[in-house]
Amino acid sequence: MRTIIKHNITRDSMYEHCRFHSDEIRNKRILVTGGAGFIGSNIVNYLLLHGAEFVRVVDDLSNGFTHNVEPFKKYKNFEFIQGSITDEAFCRKVTSGIGIVTHQAALGSVPRSISTPLATHAANATGFLNMLVAARDEGVERFVYASSSSVYGDAPQLPKLEQNLGRPLSPYAVSKLTNELYANVFALNYGLKVIGLRYFNVFGPHQDPNGPYAAAIPLFMDAVLNHKKAYINGDGNQTRDFTYVENAVQANIKAMFCTQDEAFGKVYNVAVGENVTINQLFRIIAKTAGSSLKPVYREERPGDIRDSLADISLAKKYLGYSPQVKLEQGIHTTFDWFRSAFRNQI
Ligand SMILES: NC(=O)c1ccc[n+]([C@@H]2O[C@H](COP(=O)([O-])OP(=O)(O)OC[C@H]3O[C@@H](n4cnc5c(N)ncnc54)[C@H](O)[C@@H]3O)[C@@H](O)[C@H]2O)c1
Fold this sequence. Notes:
The protein is α/β, with parallel strands linked by helices. The protein has a domain at 22-202 and 245-272 and 309-325: Rossmann fold. It contains 12 helices and 13 strands. The protein has helices at 22-25, 38-49, 66-69, 88-95, 110-115, 117-137, 171-190, 216-226, 245-257, 278-289, 313-319, 327-342; strands spanning 29-33, 54-59, 78-82, 100-103, 142-148, 194-199, 202-203, 231-233, 239-240, 243-244, 266-270, 276-277, 296-298. The strands form 4 sheets. The chain has a 7-stranded parallel beta sheet with strand order 3-2-1-4-5-6-11, sandwiched between helices. Helix 2 crosses helix 9 and helix 6 (117-137) packs parallel to helix 7 (171-190). The longest helix has 21 residues, at 117-137. Bound molecules: nicotinamide-adenine-dinucleotide. Nicotinamide-adenine-dinucleotide (NAD) is lined by residues 34, 36-40, 58-64, 84-86, 104-108, 123, 127, 146, 148, 199, 201-202.
């Protein structure tokens, strides 16, 4: 059983690198699906700190936490509604009166989707379609949504350019590709203003280190802080373009308020445009922690892509996206957060 001692430690101090569209945010009513999760709660934090007229979070708490939204309850213009986007009527209800949707709700994780493809499909594909229909029918002005670098599948090209897709390698990747296809069809047929964001391995404060589907960075931080084993799948030479969460928040804000008409109906890589191996990542985290822990190597995971590196020029051109936080700086901030929030508490 986990106790969190200071879950809100960096909430008010984050985003010194990221101040965008404060004026536009002030008169917007925004729905954040999945807002009790990691990325969603970081987006909500930004919106509330910058004076959004109204922010509603919808989350079924299947993978999110009430402690992620608890600090927001002090805002009168904040509302949390628990429920599932797999329920079409619920989606319509929560989208009513909303100007902008940023859709983050989904069941993440490639291995989870291989274990339970129906659950992944229900939340990620059916839930997504429910939200698109609701957004269309309720007259939503903008619909920004989370896609994933997993859609590149077995495409060998590096860096990843948005148009060079391979075959998806997991049900999760299929569900995210389905999102992109549906979003484009809704743009085409109903004129819905959609923007997709293909996140590349996002990390930062409020990412959950627990459970079988936790991501590498929170797992490594938990391991070095609490003297647990740190597992690396495969030889550790696979590469990833790790993206600090503030950069992902920036991409969302810029997509929500972008003014270029040509930006809509497209999907954009959201990353830093630099990659490291998992072995390098582990060494950076161990050094940050002053730990001499050595990783334990185990079998490669099915469904994982080998190498990942984003070309971010499309997001720069159409959204004005410009990642401000690089890997090592993000690791330091994240480590400080984990140390304060979770040490000996997991
Ligand atoms: N974290 C990453 O590195 C990464 C990379 C690529 C894409 N993404 C995508 O970004 C989005 C946010 O990811 P995250 O890392 O914050 O994950 P997360 O699990 O922390 O957040 C997702 C939230 O969605 C909620 N949710 C799941 N199913 C739901 C349903 N049926 N109805 C309502 N809420 C539901 C969960 O309870 C959770 O709070 C997801 O769409 C994910 O697929 C994340």
